[in-house]
Amino acid sequence: MKYFIYFFFCIILSSCISKKIINGNLPDADTISLLKIGQDDKNSVTQILGEPSFKGSLGDNAYYYVGSLKSKIAFLKSNVKEQYILELKFSKNNKLKNIYFYDKSLSTDVAMSSLETKTDGAKQSFFQQILGNFGVPGMKRGGPILGSGKADD
Q1: Cβ of 65: how many Cβ atoms within 10 Å?
Q2: Concatenated DSSP letters of 81-149
Q3: Strand 54-55 to strand 18-24: parallel, antiparallel, or no bridges (unpaired)?
Q4: Is 131 helix (H, G, I), strand (E, B) or coil?
Q5: Residue ranges per structural domain of the chain
Q6: Average pLDDT over residues 18-22
Q7: Are 62 and 56 in contact (CB under 8 A)?
Q8: How confident is the model at residue 62 (pLDDT cuts 50, 70, 90)?
Q9: CA distance 68 to 45
């Protein structure tokens, strides 16, 4: 019984270990150093770094690699350890022109509004939401049919 309690205690403690969460594309410094300004084009950049998080959509002819590294312990809120944007600017002939690096120190907090956007539609009570699907066609064991797949999946 004593060993079971120790084992159980170790299992509980192991769930409190800090987890590393990587979001986005995080190329390391060694990989970025492989890029050559004036020589590499968009295809070679994609081969070296992979697909960008997003491409410039306002005619700025750039690739953006956005990433963050967070740590989280159990159910607590995650803590941002590292956050950056790698901006790669290209010339008109699609050759790499400049490399810019923006890190967490350059970020700014944006105040969120407490206002809600009004939408058209009926406001339903709690019980209307719960009981609203009784008698609706298509309600089988798997719930309502959503999406464009087969109905019997």
Answers
A1: 22
A2: EEEEEEEEEE-TTSBEEEEEEEEGGG----PPP------SS----HHHHHHTTTT-TT-BTTBS--SSS
A3: unpaired
A4: helix
A5: 17-105
A6: 81
A7: yes
A8: very high
A9: 20
Tens digits of per-residue pLDDT, 102-148? 888 777 778 888 888 877 777 778 887 777 766 666 555 555 555 44
- Residue 151 pLDDT greater than 70, yes or no: no
pTM of the predicted protein model: 0.60
Residue 145 and residue 138 in contact, taking contact as beta carbons nearer than 8 Å:
yes
Distance CA 116, CA 53 (A): 29
Strand partners for 102: 85
Q: Record the tokens describing residue 57, joined without a space.
A: 């959509």
The CA angle 71-76-77, to the nearest 5 degrees, is 65
In order of 81, 87, 88, the CA distances from 56 in angstroms are: 26, 10, 10
- Please provide residue 10's backbone torsions phi and psi, each rounded to the nearest 5 degrees: -65, -40
In the chain the first and final C-alpha atoms are separated, in Å, by 47
Q: What is the pLDDT of residue 148?
A: 46
